[in-house]
Design a protein that fits this description.
single chain; about 130 residues; alpha+beta; three-stranded antiparallel sheet; 4 helices; 6 strands; about 40% helix; about 15% strand
């Protein structure tokens, strides 16, 4: 992880503005055609969710600005962004997961499967993964 120099950053004014807000978050929703990913998952008998999540994480890890994280009022550039998803259990509760990202889809799917097994084995009502 590297530290970004806020004072020389071209987005310093944005950082100063948004860091003073009580809830400085926003979201964007856009349509995507996932037909090819869906067909790939079906043809290869793998989880569509896993293929979709891997594609998202690959895109995120390809854009440096999406790897920025604010830690103790500093901007740090993460080497890798990993995935997190809620995992439903058979008792209708869910757990939070931490899924190690890997560029290789099959390694990532294996990591996702391991996290699902771990989360589903938890018998309490809330898990942090």
């Amino acid at each position: 992880m590297k530290l970004l120099d806020i004072n020389t950053w071209d987005r310093k004014q944005h950082f100063d503005h948004f860091s003073k807000l009580k809830d400085p978050y926003f979201g964007v929703t856009i349509p995507f055609n996932v037909e090819h990913a869906y067909q790939y998952a079906k043809d290869n008998k793998v989880s569509f969710f896993g293929v979709y999540l891997h594609a998202c994480m690959t895109a995120i890890n390809a854009v440096e600005n999406l790897k920025y994280r604010i830690v103790d009022n500093t901007v740090q550039i993460c080497d890798t962004i990993h995935a997190s998803a809620t995992i439903m259990r058979s008792n209708n509760t869910f757990g939070f997961s931490f899924i190690d990202y890997d560029k290789d889809l099959h390694v990532f799917l294996s990591n996702l499967s391991a996290e699902k097994r771990k989360n589903r084995a938890y018998t309490g009502s809330v898990s942090t993964g």
